[in-house]
Amino acid sequence: MTTYYPPLSYIVPDADDGMLLKTVLQKRMDISRKLLSRLKLTERGITLNGERVYISVHVRAGDLVEIRMETEVSEDILPEPIPFDILYEDDHLLVVNKPAGMIVHPTHGHYTGTLANGVVHYWAQRGDRYRFRPIHRLDQETSGVLAIAKNAYSHQYISEQMPVGGVDKIYAAIVHGVPLLEQGEIDGPIDRDPAEPHRRIVTPSGYPSLTRYEVKERFGTASLVELKLLTGRTHQIRVHMTSIGHPLIGDRMYRHPLYEDDRHGSGPDAAAELARVAELDDYIGRQALHAARLSFTHPVLRTRMTFEAPLPQDMLALEERLRVNEA
């Protein structure tokens, strides 16, 4: 038997009297062309006053337009009882605080132990039927706020806000050194490193990439920095901070330039500084990056929503260690 999610509804106002139903769906309910095609093939996908109709009909003021999406599940993801921290949940969204070290979605060689495995298990235990649809991704070692859509409409609606600046993603990072400017923007095109395709580099031929930063606290040899992504390239924060000489503490891929002995010498001062850098990198054991805040317009409520996750314990401990070292 076909099952559906609760319908999304729209009551036609006087101003839309006589409008094509297709226009109502696309312009008033923000249904994408792709989703509209799916709904047209769904038995109860599109109804007008409870009746299935062609989208070429004209609506009248007071008419009730409803769409219904068939329920879906992620059949290719193995449910596993993996705990995770829920920040918010309703019929359309699940927002979690992802721990560092956890992969978001199964990949080649990592079919279990991911956030997706845990979320699918959580839904199955409650008898819910949802497909795992992360709205954005976080690197395995990055902690913090992650939003997951529960249906195709919610995923589409929020994803479409990203290219036009409707989704604000704020990160906290602890970096080596202290940026010269209190705040600024890093405008550096990013593309794959031809020598190591899994890495990214700043290059004139890359994709436009813009990061805004503000120094929140100085520790003498390190800084707590707040960053806002104005574009969404892979490894963007890590690449951009490294490009201005302030790599993230603990980042093994985009490392401090002192690790390159042939460029920075091997005298006693350089060796001592490298030892200090390496000690901090080893102390946290992962890139000190946390998705602290995420804001977007809710797909159904149409209100601006903001979700926050506090700094995790390992970054708090690193901060305290830096304060002690500075003293």
From TrEMBL:
<protein>
    <recommendedName>
        <fullName>Pseudouridine synthase</fullName>
        <ecNumber>5.4.99.-</ecNumber>
    </recommendedName>
</protein>
<dbReference type="InterPro" id="IPR006225">
    <property type="entry name" value="PsdUridine_synth_RluC/D"/>
</dbReference>
<dbReference type="InterPro" id="IPR006145">
    <property type="entry name" value="PsdUridine_synth_RsuA/RluA"/>
</dbReference>
<feature type="domain" description="Pseudouridine synthase RsuA/RluA-like">
    <location>
        <begin position="92"/>
        <end position="242"/>
    </location>
</feature>
<dbReference type="InterPro" id="IPR050188">
    <property type="entry name" value="RluA_PseudoU_synthase"/>
</dbReference>
<keyword id="KW-0694">RNA-binding</keyword>
<dbReference type="GO" id="GO:0009982">
    <property type="term" value="F:pseudouridine synthase activity"/>
</dbReference>
<dbReference type="GO" id="GO:0003723">
    <property type="term" value="F:RNA binding"/>
</dbReference>
<feature type="active site">
    <location>
        <position position="139"/>
    </location>
</feature>
<dbReference type="GO" id="GO:0140098">
    <property type="term" value="F:catalytic activity, acting on RNA"/>
</dbReference>
<dbReference type="InterPro" id="IPR020103">
    <property type="entry name" value="PsdUridine_synth_cat_dom_sf"/>
</dbReference>
<comment type="function">
    <text>Responsible for synthesis of pseudouridine from uracil.</text>
</comment>
<dbReference type="Pfam" id="PF00849">
    <property type="entry name" value="PseudoU_synth_2"/>
</dbReference>
<keyword id="KW-0413">Isomerase</keyword>
<comment type="similarity">
    <text>Belongs to the pseudouridine synthase RluA family.</text>
</comment>
<dbReference type="GO" id="GO:0000455">
    <property type="term" value="P:enzyme-directed rRNA pseudouridine synthesis"/>
</dbReference>
